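[Discussion] Sanity-checking designs against the backbone

I'm trying to build intuition for which residues belong where. Below is a structure token string of 391 positions. I'd appreciate it if someone posts a full sequence so I can compare it with mine line by line.
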């Protein structure tokens, strides 16, 4: 048996999907360079194929060892049996409940924690390391996203909210990495996805199931851009304050639901000299000017601003956040000896859903539709399969 064209495009993306379902190709461990990996089947069985056809079957408890060699190919062994050297491998589950544990070893670095995944896999050699792509149903992918992005201790009503906005994000960004051969990756700039397997908490599974296929659109049936962060600090941000791109869907508004939650406030000290040197080197800020120094040390935000000190200085707060690894751009400064005390509000970019605010609203009895209307004003619930335009 011989196959070509990447195993007939990964067996037509794994036999296509059940009606109304969507398969996603998600790159795993995307921030790491994997030298070798141990794959253990924890439930069911998997078939192993190369581009030329069937190699082996791995049953419950079986292990496959993969290692990239100096020729940028993958050395494959099953238990003690050598299965050859291949450019690309395809692992196909026998049933949709089968899952594996992936234990990678990194190039010249410490190993990282193993993870468990459902679905099928495409494994290839890429620039001297192993690239793993998980082919998985969208709804199963969402279960992993919810656990990674929201944790496992939330109420079911909150998981409905996260499922809808994460499903909408996936739909809006299906082509984000298509030039690299997959839809999304597992990093936070797509959505965190650190594993998904049989046995997730009931609330996550039910939250995804009870909102099956639901996405957000606007009044023109255009896809609604969805973003979320841990805590907005009591006031949401507008997109041009953070990303220099203005989206009309997002107008800053007050959020009193998150102001007394875990990540609503933070403090950080920075040496005065460090801040001044940064401003001087990057923005031609005259640090010899006494007034300039005073303004830099005594900056106040009662409402969200876009620029540090004043727009005329041209210093975006998002740049300071990145340079000093701050929790948010929503902070004020005051001098304390030879340091500056930054008193900040919120955690993350503050655009769209405030996760802690939404969780608090759930506790107060608001339902998922009311909460989505509060954070995504002008949005409408729709079905994934409805034809949409893009924003």
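Best answer:
Here's mine. Compare freely.
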């Amino acid at each position: 048996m011989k196959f070509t064209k990447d195993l007939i495009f990964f067996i037509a993306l794994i036999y296509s999907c059940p009606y109304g379902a969507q398969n996603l190709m998600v790159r795993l461990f995307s921030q790491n360079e994997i030298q070798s990996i141990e794959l253990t089947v924890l439930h069911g069985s998997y078939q192993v194929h190369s581009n030329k056809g069937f190699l082996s079957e791995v049953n419950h408890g079986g292990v496959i060892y993969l290692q990239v060699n100096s020729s940028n190919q993958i050395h494959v062994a099953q238990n003690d049996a050598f299965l050859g050297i291949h450019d690309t491998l395809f692992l196909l589950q026998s049933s949709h409940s089968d899952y594996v544990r992936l234990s990678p070893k990194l190039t010249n670095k410490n190993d990282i924690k193993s993870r468990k995944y459902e679905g099928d896999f495409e494994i290839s050699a890429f620039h001297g390391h192993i690239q793993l792509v998980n082919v998985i149903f969208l709804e199963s992918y969402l279960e992993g996203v919810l656990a990674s992005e929201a944790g496992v201790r939330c109420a079911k009503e909150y998981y409905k909210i996260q499922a809808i906005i994460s499903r909408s994000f996936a739909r809006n960004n299906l082509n984000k990495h298509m030039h690299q051969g997959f839809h999304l990756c597992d990093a936070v700039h797509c959505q965190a996805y650190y594993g998904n397997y049989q046995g997730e908490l009931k609330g996550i599974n039910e939250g995804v199931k009870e909102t099956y296929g639901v996405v957000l659109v606007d009044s023109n049936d255009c896809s609604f851009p969805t973003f979320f962060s841990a805590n907005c600090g009591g006031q949401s941000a507008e997109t041009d304050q953070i990303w220099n791109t203005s989206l009309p869907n997002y107008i800053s508004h007050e959020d009193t639901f998150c102001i007394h939650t875990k990540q609503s406030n933070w403090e950080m000290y920075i040496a005065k000299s460090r801040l001044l040197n940064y401003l001087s080197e990057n923005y031609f800020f005259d640090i010899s000017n006494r007034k300039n120094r005073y303004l830099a040390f005594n900056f106040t935000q009662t409402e969200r601003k876009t620029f540090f000190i004043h727009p005329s200085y041209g210093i975006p707060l998002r740049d300071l956040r990145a340079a000093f690894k701050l929790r948010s751009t929503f902070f004020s400064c005051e001098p304390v000896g030879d340091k500056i005390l930054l008193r900040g509000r919120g955690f993350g970019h503050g655009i769209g859903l405030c996760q802690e605010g939404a969780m608090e609203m759930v506790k107060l009895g608001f339902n998922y539709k009311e909460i989505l209307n509060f954070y995504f004003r002008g949005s409408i619930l729709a079905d994934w399969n409805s034809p949409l335009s893009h924003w």
